[in-house]
Amino acid sequence: MLMYAFHLSIPGPVQRPAAMRLTDYTDYSLRVMLYLALRRDGLSTIQDISDAYGISKNHLMKVVQRLGELGWVDTVRGRNGGLRLAPNSLALSVGAVVRQTESDFALVGCFPDEQGERRQCVIEPQCRLKHALAAARDAFLGELDRHTIGELAQPAAGLTGLLGLVPIKFMPDAAGPTGLAGTVARRTPSREH
Questions:
Q1: Model confidence, pTM
Q2: Which residues contact 177 (CB under 8 A, 6 or more apart)?
Q3: C-alpha triplet 114, 133, 104: angle, nearest 5°
């Protein structure tokens, strides 16, 4: 399924903003990675992530399985099991995650799809559009390559509050370049009587 939409700027009275849309699968993958980056010490459950983002648990199960296969998320089975970010995943580029989770970068029909197939086009031998679109795609991914999962988790304070996570201790990260400032735990809702 192609989930990219380009709106070309055409002179005239109506101007639409440029748009490029990633699949929900990629969006959820990035959200899981971000959540786990904020919750480095301790395990999280798929239910925790589902509740924090308001995303279907079933969708997240598929995402987490793939992230585990890629070695980016460690899963711990059992009664007290859960998920955590794999040790080197903070340094992963956003572009690397997008490349692994997007199923198709065929922006137009003459680009090879994930099976390597493409539609024939009569202007292909002289077409410059495909080169412009390929350059735009490469620039998009190149920009995403400049950012890491660890960087997305900064500043942590604002994100943890929005996701229902609360700081439990301050422990500067002296072991790596991520600069993540501490650990967080899932806030359990207070029961009102």
A1: 0.71
A2: 91, 150
A3: 15
Q: What is the pLDDT of residue 164?
A: 78
Pairing of the two strands 165-170 and 182-186: antiparallel
3-class DSSP state of 144: helix
- Report the helix count and the strand count for the chain, using DSSP H and E: 7, 4
CA gyration radius for the chain? 20
The neighbouring-strand residues paired with 47 are none
**181 Cβ contact list (under 8 Å, min separation 6):** 155, 156, 157, 170, 172, 173
For residue 138, what pLDDT is reported? 87
Least trusted range by pLDDT, from 77-81, 85-89, 94-98, 180-184: 180-184
Residue bearing tokens 């292909």: 124
Tens-digit pLDDT profile for residues 56-65 = 999 999 999 9
Domains of the chain listed by start with CATH number: 24-107+118-184 (1.10.10.10)
Q: Which DSSP string do the residues of 22-68 spell out, in sequence order?
A: --HHHHHHHHHHHHHHHT-SS-B-HHHHHHHHT--HHHHHHHHHHHH
Q: Is the pLDDT of residue 44 over 70?
A: yes
Cis? peptide before 177, omega within 30° of 0: no
Query: DSSP class of residue 192?
Result: P
Determine contact, residues 2/102, Cβ cutoff 8 Å.
no
Pairing of β 82-85 and β 165-170: unpaired
